[in-house]
Specification:
heterodimer; A: alpha/beta; Rossmann fold; Cytochrome-c3 Hydrogenase, Chain A, domain 2; two-stranded antiparallel ribbon; elongated; disordered C terminus; B: alpha+beta; Alpha-Beta Plaits; 3-stranded mixed sheet; 12 strands; 31% helix; 15% strand
Chain lengths: 382, 324
């Protein structure tokens, strides 16, 4: 089975090799890494390789609203072998304000053309929140408000992906008092969309979602907030590398103290890991291994992916523990202790037997020699 | 002595004892809270079960780790012991989904010395090893005075004092509110380290004020909760107010305790027994002091016994003489 997959994948890689100018090895590594991020079974990398090598690349239109372009930057810095090339070639990025060489009317024309050519087939990616206050005048591109632009582009899109916390749930621009009425893509469109929250989100979560769509023709399994379950299915605290310290009650009390230097749990410094859904701890950032993420670097999680936590709660405020049932190892109220073994029970029985025998003998002898004693004791007993 | 005489003597002795007990002896009252009493406030609704207090207590008191699991990775005590002065226990019921609910819920509870106002261990101690400080009210232990009788272990209704059976020179181990750290300006390590303020240190007066404040808060609303030491540097933080049951454990139980508790789950379910407001020490001391007051009753009883013995001995001696 696996050999057949490998052959298929290798064939596909051959074609990509010429097109993308990366080695076969690098390409297959990318496919395997994507399959792993998605939590797909062995052999899925072949399907991904096959899908990616297809000449027909889906058109992607990428809109920027109220944001810092951090999501794009993060994606550009994904360094699994020359990934920026793959981003540009796996998907056909037809409109992206930051990466575009074109400008002005030329750029807007390109967007309109792409939308016309790929009607109903293109993927719309939205980065940034949409200001809705005062008829949306706080963000305009080419004379169009963000609201109009989003609605226009979303109308014929095959899928809408909101990347980053701003697009997902309002993010930093929506922080109190929210002067521009910054809103999420889902709120403006009035329908649920795929959300990849994070500030910035891990580029591989976005990439894996896009490649999943490309490979299987449908979006990955989503939760009630539109987040892909493969990435946002669990609370950070559940699979944090410092979790053992939490369970053992070892905390960093302040930055730079002994516990902090020893890598103890950052809960007391306000870590929001216990109320934030994301896979930061398992996937890491910056392609330098899985231990490269805020908590591993010694800073408490700020809950950037979670609405109502990131940019809402003070960074060092103690987190609410979500879904934290007591671990099985915790002592119960009444704890059975000193369970006796069979050998111990047998030894005890032997001692008890000997004692009973001895007492019986003693009683018999007493009765024989000192009958009077027993008689005088009787009244007391009555 | 024949049966008839024995009964007579017994009856006489019993009458005398009854007369002694019937004397107007005043039952002693529960002892009162010391003037500068310090204690702990444990709020189960704030406890997240992190066990930081257990770890900090071990470090502050130089206690060894204790393993209850096969993998001996870290300290996992199941209960108070000679090696553990405080422990966090988990209450679970049914699906254990809801925090601080008795039905299908869970809750955490701290076990450590409650520092009774009228402690049984101090009353039971035949020497002066267990003592209650007249000012701060801390129930302390002096291993130099201890004779190892373990009366305190048997007397405590909360099962707090524990004996270090595994040592060649065993002693009692119990929480002493980190009094050895006071000289450095520190206080109970469990309260110092608690990340949510579930365990608070402070004077009993301050603790009572804090309890009164929490009772006025609306369940589910946001409020500020102090951490560390009441009356110390402000470390308060906002948190959601828990749903308290109308019972402050230690307010009245057993004549009151200096560690008091708030919870969302009835305390019987959390392993804290339902105790009367009368302390055991008061009952036992009243009984003992009545029986042995001025040694009058024992001396009188000895007199009765001597009289009976003398009366009985005379005819026996005569009989013996006749036989010779």
């Amino acid at each position: 089975m696996n050999e057949a997959y490998m052959e298929e994948a290798t064939e596909a890689a051959g074609e990509v090799e010429n097109r993308l100018g990366i080695s076969r090895r690098e390409f297959l590594q990318f496919c395997a890494a994507t399959a792993t991020t998605l939590g797909l079974p062995a052999g899925a990398e072949a399907a991904i390789a096959k899908a990616v090598e297809k000449a027909r690349r889906p058109s992607v239109i990428w809109l920027h609203f109220q944001e810092c372009t951090g999501c794009s930057e993060s994606l550009l810095r994904a360094e699994h072998p020359t990934l920026e090339k793959l981003i540009l070639d796996v998907i056909s990025l037809d409109y992206h304000e930051t990466l575009f060489a074109a400008a002005g009317h030329q750029a807007e024309a390109a967007r309109k053309q792409a939308m016309k050519d790929n009607k109903g087939k293109y993927i719309l990616v939205v980065e940034g929140a949409i200001p809705v206050k005062d008829k949306g005048i706080y963000c305009k591109i080419g004379g169009q408000t963000a609201i109009d632009l989003l609605k226009e582009c979303a109308a014929d899109a095959a899928a809408v992906i909101a990347i980053g916390s701003c697009a997902s749930w309002g993010g930093m621009p929506s922080t109190d008092p929210n002067p521009t009425g910054a809103s999420s893509v889902g709120d403006v469109l009035g329908k649920p969309v795929v959300t990849i929250p994070g500030c910035p989100p891990n580029p591989y979560n976005f990439l894996a979602t896009a490649v999943h769509f490309l490979t299987f023709g449908k979006l990955p399994d989503l939760d009630q907030l539109g987040r892909p379950r493969f990435a946002y299915g669990r609370i950070i605290h559940e699979h944090c590398e410092r979790r053992a310290h939490f369970d053992a009650g070892r905390f960093a009390m302040e930055f730079g103290d002994e516990g902090h230097r020893k890598g103890y749990c950052l809960y007391k410094l306000g870590c929001k890991g216990p109320e934030t859904y994301a896979n930061c701890s398992t996937i890491g950032f910056g392609d330098v291994g899985e231990s490269n993420w805020p908590v591993a670097c010694g800073h408490p999680c700020i809950g950037c992916t979670e609405k109502g936590v990131g940019f809402a709660k003070p960074i060092h405020q103690t987190a609410v523990l979500r879904g934290m049932m007591p671990p099985a190892s915790y002592p119960r109220i009444v704890e059975e202790q000193g369970k006796s073994s069979f050998a111990a029970a047998a030894a005890l029985a032997a001692i008890a037997g000997a004692a009973a025998g001895g007492a019986a003998m003693l009683a018999r002898n007493l009765g024989k020699s000192e009958g009077g004693t027993q008689e005088s004791q009787q009244p007391k007993g009555e | 002595m024949d049966r008839r005489k024995f009964f007579k003597a017994s009856l006489a002795g019993g009458t005398l004892l009854a007369a002694g007990a019937g004397c107007p002896v005043q039952a002693r009252e529960n002892k009162t809270m010391p003037p500068e009493a310090v204690g702990l406030l444990f709020d189960s609704t704030l406890c997240v079960g992190c066990k930081a207090c257990v770890a900090a207590c071990k470090e502050a008191n130089g206690m060894p780790v204790e393993f209850s699991t096969q993998e001996q990775y870290w300290d996992t005590p199941l209960d108070l012991s000679g090696k553990t002065l405080t422990v966090i226990k988990a209450y679970r019921h049914g699906s254990a989904e809801n925090k601080d609910q008795a039905e299908n819920g869970y809750a955490f509870v701290k076990k450590s010395c409650l520092h009774c106002v009228d402690p049984s261990c101090v009353s039971a101690c035949p020497v002066s090893a267990m003592q209650k400080d007249p000012q701060t009210g801390v129930v302390s232990y002096d291993k130099e005075a201890c004779i190892g009788c373990r009366y305190c272990v048997a007397a405590c209704p909360f099962g707090v004092p524990r004996f270090t059976y595994d040592q060649a020179l065993p002693q009692i181990s119990k929480c002493q509110l980190c009094r050895h750290r006071w000289k450095d300006g520190k206080y109970a390590a469990c309260a110092e380290v608690c990340p949510t303020g579930a365990t608070l240190y402070g004077t009993v007066a301050d603790i009572n004020k804090e309890i009164a404040r929490r009772k006025t808060l609306k369940a589910g609303s946001q409020a500020m909760f102090p951490r560390g030491k009441l009356g110390g540097p402000d470390q308060s933080y906002p948190n959601v107010v828990g749903k308290y049951i109308d019972h402050v454990y230690g307010e009245k139980e057993f004549g009151g305790t200096q560690m008091v508790m708030l919870s969302g789950v009835p305390f019987e379910k959390l392993g804290y027994p339902d105790l009367p407001p009368r302390s055991d020490a008061r009952a036992s001391e009243t009984l003992q002091h009545t029986l042995y007051g001025g040694l009058i009753a024992p001396l009188a009883f000895l007199g009765v016994l001597s009289y009976v013995a003398k009366r009985n001995a005379k005819p026996e001696g005569e009989e013996g003489g006749q036989n010779e």
